[in-house]
Amino acid sequence: MAIPAVPAAALGAVAPQDIGRASGVNNTLQRFGGAFGVAVAAAVFSAHGQLGSPAGMTAGFRPALAVSALLSLLGAGAAVLAGRRAGAQAAPVAAPQPEVMADADA
User: Fold this and answer.
1) CA-CA distance, 70 to 43, in Å (whole number)?
2) Is the pLDDT of residue 8 over 90?
3) Which of 49, 39, 44, 9 is nearest to 26 (CA)?
4) What is the pLDDT of residues 41-57, one digit of tens each?
């Protein structure tokens, strides 16, 4: 559910001339976050378990899953805090007023 919501929020928070840059940064950070999460889970698994036996697999899988869940909760908390801060800083934008053109014949 977060995959389509995050880019929409990121692109909706920038000026139209910065949408390309924001899209690139968002895409890069999503890829980096995925690689970082896999690397952390693999490091925790290798520190606590092994692939040689079912018991070793379980011994490594449980802490790796716990760390992954903790990282997910930290990310969700950061998103909530960022959303609150962005909502509090947003100033209402007045609608542009149409220009009144003077008659050329008058």
Assistant:
1) 15
2) no
3) 9
4) 999 999 998 888 999 89
